[in-house]
Write a structure and sequence with these properties.
Blueprint lengths: L11 H9 L4 E2 L2 H10 L3 E6 L8 H15 L3 E6 L21 H15 L14 E4 L1 H4 L4 H7 L6 H6 L1 H8 L6 H4 L1 H16 L1 E7 L3 H20 L10 E5 L12 E2 L2 E2 L9 H9 L3 H11 L4 H8 L7 H16 L1 H15 L10 E4 L3 E3 H5 L10 H9 L3 E3 L2 E2 L6 E3 L8 E5 L2 E7 L1 H5 L1
Parallel strand pairs: 2-3, 2-5, 3-4, 5-6, 9-15
Antiparallel strand pairs: 1-6, 7-8, 10-13, 11-12, 11-14, 14-15
Helix pairs in contact: 1-3, 10-11, 12-15, 12-16, 13-14, 13-15, 15-16
Amino acid sequence: MPQAPAPTPKSPALATLVARGYFEQASDVEAIDRALASGMVTFYIGFDPTAPSLHAGNLLTIMAMRVLQKHGHRPLCLLGGGTAMVGDPSGKTEMRKILTPETIARNAQAFRDQFACFLHFDTGADNDALLLNNADWLLGLKYVEFLRDIGRHFTVNRMVAVKTYRDRLDAEIPLSFLEFNYQLLQAYDFFYLSEKYNCSLQLGGSDQWGNMIAGVELIRRIAGEQRDAGQEPAGGGATCLTFPLLTTSDGRKMGKSERGAVWLSRERLSPFEYYQYWINRDDRDVARLLRLYTELPLEEIDELTRVEGAAMRAATQRLAFEATRLLHGEDAATRAATASQQAFGGGDDWSAVPERTIEAAEIRLVDLLVHEHVQAFKSKRETRRRIEGKAVKINDEPCTDPNRVLTANDQDDQGLRIKVGKKRFRICLSSTQAAT
C-alpha cells in the first residue's frame, strides 16, 4: 500500500524531497528513509525517448534526481530504447506510435545532452550519473525464457486491476497485447538494474505507480526464491517513490503552453521563449514552482511569495531567471531577462529582442500577427479588431490597416519592428530562404 512521508524524515535527501513538494507516495517510506540516511543509494528514473527533446514536464523528475545526487546518491538515467518500441499505455487512451531504432537513438543523444545540464557525469565521483538504455538488455531477451522466468511472477488478475489497464478496459478502449507486456518489461528493468547496478529505488510520476510496484514485487519474489534455494540475492531491497503529476491553476498539464510543449532544447525553444514560459505563470503557482524548479532556499521563496498583486512580479521574474539559468546558463538567462524587459517595456532599445525570421517576400499584417513564429493573437478576427483599434505600431508608426502588405523594404537595421500593445516583435522577412 502507498505510504505518506514520515513527519520528520531522518535523511536530508528525503526531507528535502518532502519539503520542496516532490513526494507523493512510496512503497515503504521508512525503508527509503533509512537507506538514504545510511549511505549512497543508487536510484533510477526511466525516460522513453519518444520525442526529439525533453520538456518542462520531465523537468520535475530531473530536478528531483538533482536533489538526490547533491545529497550523495547515484542517479541512473534509463532511456527506454527497448520499451519505446512497445509504448507505455499509462495515461493514454490509444496506442502510442512505434518509433524506429534510428529515431530512438537520435532522441537518446539529445536527452543525454540535456541531462548533463542538471546532473554530473564522468567526474570520477562515486555518485556520477549513468546513462543507460534498456534496449541493451531487452532486445536480446528470448521470449519463451522471459515468460518462464519473469512472466510466471505476474497474474492477469492483478495486472488488469492496475488503473492504467482498468480505465482502458472499462471505457472499452482497445488495449493491445503489445501494450499489456509493458508492465512486465518495466518490472524487468528494475530487476536488471537491481542485479547489475545495486539499484534499490525507482522514482517516477504517479501514473507509473502500478508499473513501479510490479518491479518491487518482482524483485521481492525472485529474491525469496533465491533464498529458498540457499542463494544470496544478487540485488538489494527494492522500493519506489512517486512524484505528483502537476497541473497549473488554469488546468494545464505542466510543460504545455499555447504553442505546445515547452522543450528543453534551445534549437526547439530559445532561451528567451523558455524564460517567457516561466514568467507568464499564474501567481497562484509561483511559490510551488519556485520550490520545484529552482534551488532558492525555502525561506527566500516564502519571502518572495508572501505578497500579492503587482508585487508578485518580482517572484515570477526570479522564477523565470533561475529556471532559465539552470538549463541554459547565467549569460543566456541574463540576456533573456534583458530581452523580456525590452520586448514588454518602453524605450528605444530593441537590441535584445529576439529576431524571428519569416520566410516570405511579402506578407499581410493580419497574416503576420497570427503566423506560427509570432502568434501575437489567436485568430485573424481578433487581429483585425486589434489593428483597427490602433493597438499595433510598425516601426513606431500606428497602423490600422489589417491588409497592409509588408516587404523587406519596410525593414531597417533592426528588422521589422512591430509593437502590439506593450509587446514587441522583431521580424525579418526572408525571401532567399523561401527560394532555397
